[in-house]
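Example 1272.
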Amino acid sequence: MKKKMILDVDTGVDDAQAIMIALSSPHVEILGITCCHGNTPLENVLKNTLRVLKVCGRLDIPVYKGFSKPLLSNKRNAGDYHGKDGLGDVPDPDAPGVELLQKKKAAQAMIKIAKAHPEEVILVATGPLTNLAVAVQLDPSFPNKLKALYIMGGNTNSRGNTTVCGEFNFVADPESAYIVLDRYTCPTYIASWEFSCRSSLPWSFCDEWLSRKSEKAAFMKKITALSMTKAKSADYQKEVIAGGGFNPCDVFALAAAVDDDFIVEKEEVAVTVELNGTNTRGMMVLDYMELLKKEHKVFIMKTVDLEKLKKMLINAIK
Amino acid sequence: MKKKMILDVDTGVDDAQAIMIALSSPHVEILGITCCHGNTPLENVLKNTLRVLKVCGRLDIPVYKGFSKPLLSNKRNAGDYHGKDGLGDVPDPDAPGVELLQKKKAAQAMIKIAKAHPEEVILVATGPLTNLAVAVQLDPSFPNKLKALYIMGGNTNSRGNTTVCGEFNFVADPESAYIVLDRYTCPTYIASWEFSCRSSLPWSFCDEWLSRKSEKAAFMKKITALSMTKAKSADYQKEVIAGGGFNPCDVFALAAAVDDDFIVEKEEVAVTVELNGTNTRGMMVLDYMELLKKEHKVFIMKTVDLEKLKKMLINAIK
Amino acid sequence: MKKKMILDVDTGVDDAQAIMIALSSPHVEILGITCCHGNTPLENVLKNTLRVLKVCGRLDIPVYKGFSKPLLSNKRNAGDYHGKDGLGDVPDPDAPGVELLQKKKAAQAMIKIAKAHPEEVILVATGPLTNLAVAVQLDPSFPNKLKALYIMGGNTNSRGNTTVCGEFNFVADPESAYIVLDRYTCPTYIASWEFSCRSSLPWSFCDEWLSRKSEKAAFMKKITALSMTKAKSADYQKEVIAGGGFNPCDVFALAAAVDDDFIVEKEEVAVTVELNGTNTRGMMVLDYMELLKKEHKVFIMKTVDLEKLKKMLINAIK
Amino acid sequence: MKKKMILDVDTGVDDAQAIMIALSSPHVEILGITCCHGNTPLENVLKNTLRVLKVCGRLDIPVYKGFSKPLLSNKRNAGDYHGKDGLGDVPDPDAPGVELLQKKKAAQAMIKIAKAHPEEVILVATGPLTNLAVAVQLDPSFPNKLKALYIMGGNTNSRGNTTVCGEFNFVADPESAYIVLDRYTCPTYIASWEFSCRSSLPWSFCDEWLSRKSEKAAFMKKITALSMTKAKSADYQKEVIAGGGFNPCDVFALAAAVDDDFIVEKEEVAVTVELNGTNTRGMMVLDYMELLKKEHKVFIMKTVDLEKLKKMLINAIK
Ligand SMILES: [Ca+2]
Ligand SMILES: [Ca+2]
Ligand SMILES: [Ca+2]
Ligand SMILES: [Ca+2]
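Predicted structure in complex with calcium ion:
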């Protein structure tokens, strides 16, 4: 049986890479893609997502419009890194129009899909967690109907990439991240910022990967060019831990959802999100000492099979 | 020329070890020991410090009474780990009396000593930083008169040992830690909790060390027994990162002050202390991205020469 | 034309009083009652609301189930004051069953009703603001479709009734209160805790009122007895400012919505909610100095026509 | 017997007025004036204080230098209102030099003076509370040696004059205000910002007062001119509650200390200072519900004898 997935994205270059891996995985069935504000304003996220599906010839996959703002409404975009349009600033004059979007909204769609396939759906979230936070508020039983949740977001060692101690996806909506880590008691796997830094691929692989010949490869090369340049800049290097290299953040969460053997080493620990700190607002907090007395624990990804990752990336652009 | 030092302590078993290493270092001259609340109430700290000096035959070293409370006065002791009396609960009926203490108070004494030896004095702080915080308030020029400051305290990866994200010395007086990291612009070296965990010595060394024959060794064995048992407990292991072993926290700061070659690898970064978080109050914050625009940076200790450490520990109890 | 209203309640004795005033006002048409957690768990709120409608012979009014938890899910009930069941602990064996509830959920119902009657609907909120917060997240244009919003909640002078500085409805879901004050840019009127204390009616009126003869009066007397006793207790008096008396909090918001001449004096000021304070979390903040640069201002109720209030209360139980 | 006083000031026009009232009170003996950063940088405070003493022919009174920075060192001056030099920007070319200052520092001087006259000294604090906070840290028994403490500072109804909810003296050093309200358990009287607004004198009195003929009156008129103009401005009016008028803030605290019958109505309540709020940091918190379980309560001034105030002001410039 195929793995049923919902992808919750803020498409972005790495979200695009994640979507393309999912599309190229023979054992994965994408039941829907829900869009959220994040890397770029929601309008761009919707367009970018449709562009990715078009390149892959999969505009049949339903795309849902989610929230354009975080719960407390101080929006923060990461447009700088992924380009002004969130996808490398290489516009497609023939991009599909938003009339292709579903009528139903993202949070409600998630709930309906999970209800239709109880305990079968894997939710992969690679943007701010606003859609998920509202979904559990609308239906507190939603998390229990999921098979698993994979998140790219948060940090494990107080090494921020957006604020001093905060990772972008969590900082972009700290309250939603808090709600999700508090109320999603399904099996949960987290690819943190520091983990993704430590799991980067060498630039040499990346160069070889992007030089392949195919329509998808050409698209990938085009949308990736800008962020690749930025990733090699001195300022970006300050955000990074453990050397540099090609860090396709969101892909780690998706890859773990696709292949149960992708995660080599993980850690089980209760987590929450700091909401009040001056420098730590939005920081993921790991409760190793079990002081918070939380029953639910998540799996923090520690090491993964990078060879599998390479294969997935290569398949994604074939 | 000998290195002139002031030790600011909350004696504690590991403070005792640090003091004994300093006393046994031929190139170190201790100009004074200033006492602070911390591991145990100030009265015990004073007594414990005098007991250590007595065992080492150095009651000539001036000991100063510092603050019994943190700035905001919510005292927190760590009596559990170091014993009720802070020194393993093995009382000495002939312990020296507090009449041996200096009349001058700790903060004022620090200032006077540094003034008498401008840019020659190394301050080693192995307890909460209350004395240092008030000293710089009393004399803003005090830090500039120091040669260097070595601190045991804070955490670098949000791994707390006292609160979810907070290390004891900083959590015991977060405002003082904040003030010190803000206003001590002399060269500053920090031995963090996570660093000390990663730099632990094997228990086998510890056993061999404590089995040596000398009056000092017997004293060390006696005061260390309780905390050693606790260190091997399951609950304590939750606080620890990177395996277990013998972690003489305070000793790392002192050893770095004694021997300029002790630190093998260090990192220079601006730091501050989170004062407002729910789970992160008292956590040290490292500003790798330079978002705080602080001019002063500190040296975070990364790796040290453990063979040197062993030798220092052995010499300390000869 | 009748005033179209949605009542968002956490029924509660004073919510019950407010509902009964609305029902007895000839110029008011209630389009729906949406229920929220608050004074008592949501299940009780639903039951209590139906009981009130039954006593008034108005079970035709649609009642909608809203959220059982605040956004960040640390539920806080005020069961003590309004009785364990939220309505004076005088159960009705023939209470109507929850099968009478609408299928649609509260937040979605609000949105639909307002859409059907653009700029005609007055929303009166007398419980925690969770339903309203999620509604604006689901449909950012919802507030602009309202004619006006009347809120009972918040405090104007840092005089809490639940925490040191916090009023119950706001403290029960501070994030929702923040969202509503931030995003509801329709004309907004607030009956604060301190205002309600200063506008209390004499006990003598209350005694006379409750001694009237009618089925509704008997019901009112029964459900009010417990909270009246509590209101006269020493502990409750500590919460109160400006003398004692009968303070039907929620009724002030409803009365202002019913009769445009009820408010005699009001103040226009930008407001927000403190989310981070140790003692002030959930406190309403009034920005008299315009430091927050908020465009939208609300009307803070200052004095009202108490004779009108008495008449409304009397009519409500006829 | 004369009342022995220490005045802790950040001179400021209203501090100057307070000092001059104290000097003109036959039953008051000023044992010392301690200076603190605040309205204007410490250097100006020192100079301004000496200028006031010179005009009054009382340069015999010892003046002590206190702290130039708040505990956490984010200095905030109110130079705008009191003029760039803190005293109306009317410099005196023959101002006395700082060589007249005492050698001893403010905090230590306070402690020494109180020790010399146990339970006889009244401390009147009309600036940020840094000197007092450090004094109690240096000598925890200091507050018990005082007869009473009078403070101008804090707010009682969340009406800020500096931040949204914060009054200048408290906001200028919130941690010090917290420490003082926590650890000064002597009888304590507080003249809050809102109280002072409600107790303002009519401008007509002020005009008449300043038109008197004397050297002191001329000095007063000169230094008061600038702040009087500002006080009548639209922007300042936003800070004020309860009408306008001449509000000599600091004078209320001093007058209460001078004349035991000055306070007509007061309220006894436990208080603290909010340290963590986004909009409420530095706000005084009144614990009417006794949720904080503090033993020590302070007296909040409610109404005072304004005729006495007028007489004091008139005598001060004779
Ligand atoms: Ca993403
Ligand atoms: Ca220590
Ligand atoms: Ca209510
Ligand atoms: Ca002043």
